Amino acid sequence: MYGNDFEQPGAATLLDEVEAAEQALRAAAERRVAAARAGGTGDTGGAEAELQEYFDAVVAADQKIEPRDWMPEAYRKTLVRQIAQHAHSEIIGMQPEGNWISRAPSLKRKAILLAKVQDEAGHGLYLYAAAETLGIDREELVGLLLTGRQKYSSIFNYPTLTWADVGAIGWLVDGAAIVNQVPLCRCSYGPYARAMIRICKEESFHQRQGYEILYTLAHGTPEQKAMAQDAVDRWWYPSLAMFGPPDTASTHSEQSMAWKIKRFSNDDLRQRFVDMCVPQAEVLGLSIPDPDLRWNDERGAYDYTQPDYDELFRVIRGDGPCNRQRMAHRRRADADGAWVREAAAAYAAKRSARPAEAAARPAEAAA
Ligand code: BYC
Question: How much is the pLDDT for 46?
């Protein structure tokens, strides 16, 4: 079951979607579009127009573009931008929760949180690896983050003030991430889609652990319940803002949707998230801090108050509550880890030199 341990209609849908996306991905790997059957394998031998035609046919047929395939330069750049931003978010996203590992209220909570934060590092690795298939290496991407030329998600610029924030991040932030990322399992670029399938399965556990923390607090002492409510009050609107600017201000959505990188617009996903959270908040016994939240029969969805998009743009520009702290910490970690990367590279070079040395030895002996 997706998300939490309480029966609710439609609760399994998101993980079912991931499952279906995985099956579609496998099927896509076995089929090639008609153009490929007739004219070859989509290799790069033809003229630009033919290559574009083949690319368009693959996308239209819901097949996957693979690293070996020709792709428009703008498609490649968009993927590098989005995948890198996503990877950076996973790595920077370790900080707010990492802040609570040493202060988790029990050994069990500490072990769970450690595993969760480690998973985020793993997600970063899958995503950097997916970006590398587009011909850019991880070191360069990290450099772009550290010099402020690439972004990471706005959400990680908010502080984690209490233990309940760890619950709110799991429920709301990971919940928003799942809603955003499940459709990315159907992304037209194969390596990104494959990375997302695994990530979404792990995110489901993350969301559930946050939900369970909040449920426990909400059913604990009045002080614990108040702490849980306070965390939800602070994380609700930043979580809504994670989905990006409204459609009218989203510069990339239209093209990304035409390329089937994005499958839904920012506003559609935001709505889906709100509709998912309302019944879950009821089970928690916590309220969503929006006096205008109400069911709209005509739309078949909840009406809700939009997040403050000026605040979102301020945070994206680097002026959120924790931007400076997050980047300073990341730069420090990068510098502190330099010797590990150097040692690993030296070890790898030594190991790869070994077969050559071994091959050279008999010849030397014979001489
Ligand atoms: N924060 O045209 P738009 C996680 C930027 S990690 C910062 O709508 P797009 C987790 C956008 O980049 C969660 N910037 O863009 C980890 C663009 O600027 P540029 C991360 C944002 O790409 C640890 C401009 O605003 N998830 O789950 O079509 C613990 C215009 O926006 C944001 C992903 O990265 C933002 N919130 O759509 C727990 C998912 N929103 O690049 C959890 C993959 C917008 O032109 N990414 N911008 O300078 C996406 O789905 C899309 O990139 C977005 C934005 C929906 C985020």
Answer: 56
Q: Which of 77, 83, 85 to mutate to test the pocket of ligand 1 (most atoms within 8 A of CB)?
A: 85
Question: 186: which 2 tokens?
Answer: 């159907």
Contact criterion met (CB below 8 Å) for 322 and 328? no
CA of 324 to the centre of ligand 1 (A): 19
Residues 6+ apart with CB under 8 A from 343: none
Instruction: Look at residue 359 in the predicted model and tell me its pLDDT.
Output: 75
What is the per-residue pLDDT for 2?
43
DSSP string covering 61-81: TT--B-TTS---HHHHHHHHH
The Å distance, Cα 226 to ligand 1 centre, comes to 31
Residue 177 Cα: closest atom of ligand 1: 27
Q: What is the pLDDT of residue 360?
A: 75
pLDDT at 361: 73
Note the pLDDT of residue 36.
Answer: 52
Alpha-carbon span 163 to 112, nearest angstrom = 14
- Residue 300, classed as helix, strand or coil, is coil
**Does any ligand 1 atom lie closer than 6 A to the CB of residue 266?**
yes
Reported pTM = 0.91
String of b and e for 342-353 (b: at least 16 CB within 10 Å)?
Answer: eeeeeeeeeeee
- Whether the CB-CB separation of 309 and 249 falls below 8 Å is answered with yes
Distance 172 CA to ligand 1 centre (A): 16
In the prediction, which pLDDT does 5 show? 45
Q: Where are the alpha helices (DSSP H) in the chain?
A: 13-30, 34-39, 48-60, 73-92, 94-98, 107-132, 138-146, 163-168, 175-181, 190-218, 222-241, 253-258, 266-284, 309-316, 323-336, 338-366
- The segments of the chain whose pLDDT lies below 50 read 1-7, 9-10, 35, 37, 40-42, 44, 367
Residue type, 280: Q
The whole-number pLDDT of residue 184 equals: 97
